[in-house]
């Protein structure tokens, strides 16, 4: 309900006769861009604020920034934006994080203080924030640990985040977590080297699940050199049940990302997965390659949820591709 009110205020304010400056034009541009490129919209909203907005439109821009950051789980930036807004914004954010990650009260208070500090312009405060997050890392569960690692990595403390993982041990699970973060950071060569070293040192002392994870991460690490379909297909052999189809879907997705849609469709011909991401890939390929009208209608019915996915995910390639297919029919 609150989102609807903010959007209504924004639209009404933007169409007012008194608002004809560059700030208003930039606001309108950012608002239109939100559906397809939220990160781009953030930059333009900031430019609009710097260019000058009326009180109402300035508040609307701050709300839009808050919602984008919250949806993308960029909690440090969302927390900063909440300081320009009524107390209800911070309350909403705090409740969302608590419900999503369920940290202890002490850890949660340290987390909120830490993420606020790590985006400070003062280097000493950034260091204090990283220290606070490091202190609660070891006592947090895996899900909250991942959140801490991502927050640190995205805000200037990537090496410290990697060191947190390394300090927890050199077992297979720790190395796999390190590789996962390296891939997230785009440091693909380092991730591939770590996996290769692990394979060389431990030979065949891996569980079936670890083997699947290793080959899967190796496929992701090699993505820049082309669609490493073989790695995902090998990983599929170690997987069982739903995970087996997911590995095949990842191979198809790699082909699609590298402009081999026909080959991707061939891999997905016998899809029986109930996984939403796998189903979306199947629908996109059926609509695009098979020209399946039912698949296209199904995608049209998912239009609003696809827009929401684009807002929330940094890499929403599949949802964006689906929206382009829908737009091609509707225009």
Describe the SSE topology:
Layout (H helix, E strand, L loop, with lengths): L1 H13 L7 H12 L4 H14 L3 H17 L3 H8 L4 H15 L3 H13 L5 H15 L4 H13 L3 H10 L4 H13 L3 H15 L5 H14 L7 H10 L3 H16 L3 H7 L8 H13 L4 H9 L1 H10 L4 H14 L1
Helix pairs in contact: 1-4, 2-3, 3-4, 4-5, 5-6, 5-7, 7-8, 8-9, 9-10, 11-12, 11-13, 12-13, 13-14, 14-15, 15-16, 16-17, 17-18, 17-20, 19-20
Can you offer a commentary on this structure?
This protein has a domain at 1-78. It is mostly helical and 331 residues long. 40% of the residues are buried. The protein has helices spanning 2-14, 22-33, 38-51, 55-71, 75-82, 87-101, 105-117, 123-137, 142-154, 158-167, 172-184, 188-202, 208-221, 229-238, 242-257, 261-267, 276-288, 293-301, 303-312, 317-330. The longest helix has 17 residues, at 55-71. It starts with a helix and ends with a helix. The radius of gyration is 22 Å and the shape is flat. Helix 1 packs across helix 4 (55-71), helix 2 (22-33) runs antiparallel to helix 3 and helix 11 (172-184) runs antiparallel to helix 12.
Poorly predicted segments? 1-20
Helicity range:
over 70%
* Biggest pleated-sheet summary: none
Mean pLDDT: 82
Strand proportion, as a percent range, falls in under 5%
Shape: flat
**Structural class designation:** mainly alpha
Radius of gyration: 22 Å
SSE order in H/E notation?
A: HHHHHHHHHHHHHHHHHHHH
Beginning-to-end CA distance, first to last residue? 30 Å
Oligomer state equals single chain
Number of strands: 0
Contiguous helical run count: 20
């Amino acid at each position: 309900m609150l989102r609807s009110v903010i959007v209504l205020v924004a639209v009404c304010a933007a169409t007012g006769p008194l608002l004809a400056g560059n700030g208003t034009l930039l606001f309108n541009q950012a608002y239109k861009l939100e559906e397809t490129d939220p990160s781009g919209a953030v930059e333009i909203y900031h430019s609009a604020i710097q260019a000058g907005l009326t009180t109402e439109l300035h508040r609307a821009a701050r709300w839009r920034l808050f919602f984008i950051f919250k949806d993308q789980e960029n909690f440090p930036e969302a927390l900063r934006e909440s300081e320009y807004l009524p107390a209800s914004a911070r309350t909403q954010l705090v409740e969302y994080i608590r419900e999503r990650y369920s940290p202890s009260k002490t850890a949660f208070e340290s987390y909120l203080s830490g993420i606020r500090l790590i985006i400070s312009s003062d280097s000493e405060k950034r260091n204090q924030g990283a220290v606070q997050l490091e202190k609660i890392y070891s006592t947090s569960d895996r899900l909250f640990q991942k959140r801490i690692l991502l927050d640190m990595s995205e805000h200037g403390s990537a090496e410290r985040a990697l060191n947190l993982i390394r300090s927890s041990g050199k077992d297979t699970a720790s190395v796999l977590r390190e590789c996962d973060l390296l891939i997230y950071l785009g440091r693909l060569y380092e991730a591939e080297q770590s996996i290769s070293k692990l394979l060389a040192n431990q030979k065949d002392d891996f569980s079936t699940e670890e083997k699947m994870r290793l080959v899967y991460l190796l496929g992701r690490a090699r993505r820049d050199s082309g669609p490493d379909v073989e790695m995902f297909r090998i990983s599929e052999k170690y997987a069982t049940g739903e995970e087996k189809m997911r590995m095949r879907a990842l191979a198809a997705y790699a082909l699609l990302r590298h402009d081999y849609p026909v080959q991707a469709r061939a891999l997905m011909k016998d899809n029986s997965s109930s996984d939403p991401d796998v189903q979306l890939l199947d629908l996109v390929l059926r609509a695009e390659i098979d020209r399946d009208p039912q698949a296209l209608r199904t995608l049209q019915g998912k239009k609003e949820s696809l827009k929401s996915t684009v807002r929330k995910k940094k890499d929403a390639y599949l949802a964006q591709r689906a929206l382009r297919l829908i737009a091609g029919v509707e225009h």
